[in-house]
Design brief:
The chain has about 475 residues and is an alpha+beta fold. The protein has helices spanning about 5-15, 45-50, 105-120, 190-205, 230-250, 295-305, 310-315, 320-325, 370-385, 405, 415-425, 430, 440-460, 460-470; strands at about 20-25, 30-35, 50-55, 65-70, 80, 85-95, 125-140, 140-145, 150-155, 210-215, 220-225, 230, 255, 270-280, 280-285, 335-340, 345-350, 360. Strand 8 (about 140-145) and strand 9 (about 150-155) form a beta hairpin.
């Protein structure tokens, strides 16, 4: 149920709230926050906003133009389930104080412009998104990047490599094997109670949970499936889901990560993104074509496939993302679409009710900024609709095991972040339609991410010692 400013003020009073937390998301997708005592919070905050310094946010303004405003959205009001003192949190848009307009690099404002663009285009009025972010839960993690020491070490009872370990309290032996986590009952699955607590907290925060389970990877990979919603709200919910996962794990003395590939030799974490476009209460993806899809849906798929490599820079935004997207393994690297065939990068899930007709993009991962990722996917799809980009024939074979002569005919996603950023730089027109993304924002994004690429390029890797030390 939508909350008004009056509803928020009543929440504050009824719950004897002591602090209000203003939250916003930076370019990389990390939530930031600033807190005020309730004595400094009133209805005016929803019209005047809260001033803050934006110069220290990566990819944002310089020190010479740092004053920004946080504009809280009353519909996002919730009581924080983890703070010791009663605190209400609000997700915010970032506003330019000079003209009162949305900051062009603010991810949430970009998502709002994407929704507005959809309506203005006349193609539809509502975009629904349903992401499935996977994550790992570990007992502990250590890493070092020193001139003479480069390492990481994961501690996790479930990890298959612990089968022969002498562990404090004894090694009980019940754990998943490599690719064996999907999904035996406890005690092999040791995170059931933790996931249940996460699910209950999400429900209290107004995010409906549909399913939760252990995922394929042996060392603590999990998933909590939550309900689809509109683009901006679903991105808001994704940020809250991450927050809940991190903090419940922390309360259990564990550590959670949405890093796509925290270790080699087992499945990485993806974020499959279900999506559909509606108009006047009608699902525009439903039709009598392939797998019950309309031409609108097929063109939408065509747009995603056409722009997939530019999309990778946003939907797979880290150097680590491409440790997961490796050809020859069970990763959705092939740019093809198929009904129920999970080896294609675009899948059409089977649904009995045509109202549920949707597509599922399988190459994104949970390190993506959800506001930017959902907006970019929709803009690519709408470009396909506007330009009638047909995706060709559906893939009927297992794309993981094609004969070489057929395999080379199927295009793939990018193999590295720098390649994806190069595609984004050259293929950005679909994103800047209607001013949804600006060239200034995309230039700043590419510069920010190329900094990560350069740092990664300069760092010697332990594998290189294996391959080259004795040459």
């Amino acid at each position: 149920m939508a909350k008004t400013v009056a509803d928020v003020m009543k929440m504050v009073k009824d719950n004897e709230v002591k602090f209000v937390d203003f939250r916003f998301t930076d370019t990389r997708g990390k939530e930031q926050h600033v807190t005020v005592p309730v004595s400094h919070f009133d209805e005016d905050k929803f019209s005047a906003g809260h001033a803050f310094d934006g110069s220290s946010v990566a990819g944002w303004k310089g020190i010479e133009a740092s004053d920004m405003q946080l504009m809280p959205d009353p519909q996002t009001a919730n009581l924080d389930p983890f703070y010791e003192e009663t605190t209400l949190f609000l997700q915010c848009d970032v506003i330019e104080p000079g003209d009162g307009k949305a900051y062009d690099r603010d991810p949430r404002s970009i998502a709002k412009r994407a929704e507005a663009y959809l309506k203005a285009s006349g193609l539809g009025d509502t975009a629904y998104f349903g992401p499935e972010p996977e994550f790992f839960i570990f007992d502990g993690v250590r890493w070092a990047n020193e001139p003479g020491k480069v390492m990481f070490e994961i501690e996790e009872y479930e990890a298959p490599w612990n089968s022969g370990a002498r562990l404090e309290g004894g090694n009980r032996g019940h754990r998943p094997g490599v690719k064996g986590g999907y999904f035996p009952v406890p005690p092999v699955d040791s995170t059931q109670d933790m996931r249940a607590e996460m699910a209950l907290i999400l429900e209290t925060l107004g995010i409906p949970v549909e399913v939760f389970h252990h995922e394929v990877a042996g060392a603590g990979q999990n998933e909590i499936g939550t309900k689809f919603s509109t683009l901006v709200q679903r991105a808001d919910w994704t940020q809250v889901l991450k927050y809940v996962v991190w903090n419940v794990a922390n309360a259990y003395g564990k550590t959670a990560t949405f890093m796509p590939k925290p270790y080699a030799g087992d499945n990485g974490s993806g974020m499959h993104v279900h999506q559909s476009i509606w108009k006047d209460g009608k699902n525009l993806f439903s039709g009598d074509g392939y797998a019950g899809l309309s031409d609108f849906a097929l063109y939408y798929i065509g747009g995603i496939i056409r722009h997939a490599r530019a999309l990778n820079a946003i939907t797979n935004p880290g150097t680590n993302s491409y440790k997961r997207l490796v050809p020859g393994f069970e990763a959705p690297v092939k740019l093809a679409y198929s009904s129920r065939n999970r080896s294609a990068s675009i899948r059409i899930p089977y649904v009995a009710n045509p109202k549920g007709r949707r597509i599922e993009a399988r190459f994104p991962d949970p390190s993506a900024n959800p506001y930017l990722a959902f907006s970019a996917l929709m803009m690519a799809g709408l470009d396909g609709v506007e330009n009638k980009i047909h995706p060709g024939e559906a893939a009927s074979k297992d794309l993981y095991h094609l004969p070489p002569e057929e395999d080379k005919l199927v295009p793939t996603v990018c193999h590295s972040l720098d390649q994806a950023l190069d595609y984004l730089d050259k293929d950005r027109g679909f994103l800047t339609q209607g001013g949804v993304f600006t060239d200034s924002m995309l230039d700043a994004y590419i510069e920010l991410k190329m900094g990560e690429v350069t740092r990664f390029r300069m760092a010697p890797h332990p594998v290189e010692y294996d391959m080259y030390y004795s040459l």
